[in-house]
Here is the input.
Amino acid sequence: MKSIAALLLLLAILSCKQTSRSQQINPYHYTPVKRIVVKHGAIATANPLASEIGAMILKKGGNAVDAAIAAQLALAVVYPAAGNIGGGGFMVIHLKNGKNTAIDFREEAPGKATRDMYLDKKGNADPQLSRNGDLSVGVPGTVAGIFLAHKEYGKLPMKELIQPAIDLAERGYAITATEARWLNENQQDFKKYNTIMPVFVKESDWHAGDTLLQKDLAHTLELIRDSGQAGFYEGETAQKIVSEMQRGNGMITLQDLKNYQAKERTPAVFDYKGYTIETMPLPSSGGVVLQQMLGMLSNYPVDQYGFESVKSVQLMTEIERRAYADRAQYLGDPDFVKVPVKELVSESYLKQRMTNYNPDYATPSDSISAGVIPPESEETTHLSVVDDSGNAVAVTYTLNNLYGSQVVVGHAGFFLNDEMDDFSAKPGAPNMFGLLGTEANAIAPGKRMLSSMTPTIVLKNDKPYLVIGSPGGATIITSVFQTIVNILDFNINVSDAVNKPKFHEQWKPDVVYVEKGFPDSVKQAMERMGYSFKERGSIGRTEVIKMTPDSIVAVADDRGDDSAAGY
Ligand code: DON
Here is the structure.
C-alpha cells in the first residue's frame, strides 16, 4: 500500500518535472510511451506500469539487474499472458566492470517425464497434451532466476523490488484493451483447464479499464518476499502447485520443485563488423542461430544492397532458411546432448553453408512434413534495461503461448507454462511454432527444452550500445537479427528498425512470412525467383535501448502496449 502510494507520488512528480515522458501514468490510467530520450537510465517492457516500476528502481539507485527483476515481477501481475512466476526464460547481463554473463532459468522436464509422453497409441504426437493443461507444464524457473541474478548482481534489497508487484496484485490496476480481448478470447480454455476458477474467469466480458485484483497472487508474492526462493519452491506454494498437478493429471512433484536450480552460463560473445554481440547460449537456440545468421551475412556488403531491397531481403531469407535447418537438426540442452556449437558457428562452415546460395533463385527447403505456424495467439515478453553506471540487462521470459497451459495454480493465483511443447515430441512433429527437432531436443527428465529466446546486448568499444530482444516463438531470432542489421548495416533510426514490417523464413514450412505493409514490389520480384509469401500477424515485439554519446534512446514496439520509461 505504501509503495503504491509512493509510486503514484513519484509518477506525479516525474510528470511535473518536464522529463521526456509525455504523460502521467497511474495504475488506473496510463498510456504507452513509445520512445524516450534520457540521460541516466532507461527501460522498455511490454507494459507501461512495469516500465515505470523499473524506472523508479533505477532512480532510487538500483542497478539494471534490480530494475529488470522489479519489472519482471511487475509483469507477472500486469501482463499475466506472458509475464510470469510460473514460466521461465533467460537474462543476459553486461556489467560496468566489463563482465558478460547469462542466467538460464528455463523450465525443465519433470522427473517423471518420458521421451514419448505426448505420443498417442498410434505413435503420433498429440499437441493437445503438450500445449494445454497440467501435463504441458515444465518445472518453472522464473523465481529461481530472479534470486540467482539478485544474489550475484543485485544491489537493492529484494523486498524493495517485489513490493510494487505485490501492491499492484493486492490493490488492482486497470487492464488494457489488449489484455481484455485476450482474457475474453481465452475464457473457454480457462474454464476447461482449471478445476478451481481463477480471477481471470468472468461471466460478463472484460473491458479495457476494468480493475483486475489478484489477491491469491499477492499472497504468493508475499511468501516469496518473506521466505525467498523457498517461498515458491517449498512450503505452501510448492504444495499448491503439486495439488494442482494432482487435480489436473500433471507430473510435477515436490522434489522436482526443490531440485530446480537456475544456472549461470557463459554467454555467446562474437564479433560482427567491429561490434561485439553478447547473447544467450544453449539451451536457447537464439545465440547459436543469431551468430550463424550474422556470420553468414558478414560476407556480403548488405549495407550497399539497402533496407527492404530485393537483394537484401532475398539474401537474409536464404540465410534464415539455412540457420533454422541447423537448429532443427543439431540443437538441444547442452547438459544432456553434445552439440557441435563451435563447428556450427565457424567461419569456414558458414561460408560453406552459403555455397549453394543463388542470388537469382529460391533454394527449396527439402519437403518433409511441413509445420504450420499459428497466426498470433502466442506471447512471450522481453525487457531491456540500462542504468547510470554502464550496466545493461536483456531479459526474455515466457509462459510459452498466451497464458501458457491456461492453468492457474489453485489459490496461488499464477499461470503455469506449457513449455513442454518446445521439446520435440518426436522427430518430424512440429511444435506450435512449426519448428522441427531431432533426438537432440527429445524429452528427458530434468532436461531443458530448446528455446528461441534471444536476449542480446551489442557492445561498441566494449560498452553497451544496443540492448535488444523480442517475443514471437520461432520469429524471435529473425526479429532480433533484422533489427540489429537494420541499425548496424542499414543505419536506420531505432523506431523504424523496430516497427517496419519484418519477414521470416524458418526452413520448414518453405514459405516466407511477412507482416502487413511489407513492400509488394519486393514480394513480387521474389515470387518471380520462386519464393512463396504468406502474410501473418506480428513478427516480434522488439524493445531496443540505444546508447549514443550523450543520451539513451529507448524504443518500445508499436505492435502492443509496450512502453519505455527512464530519467
Ligand atoms: O522458448 C521459446 O522459444 C518459446 N517458448 C517462446 C514462445 C514465444 O515467444 C511465444 N510468443 N510470442
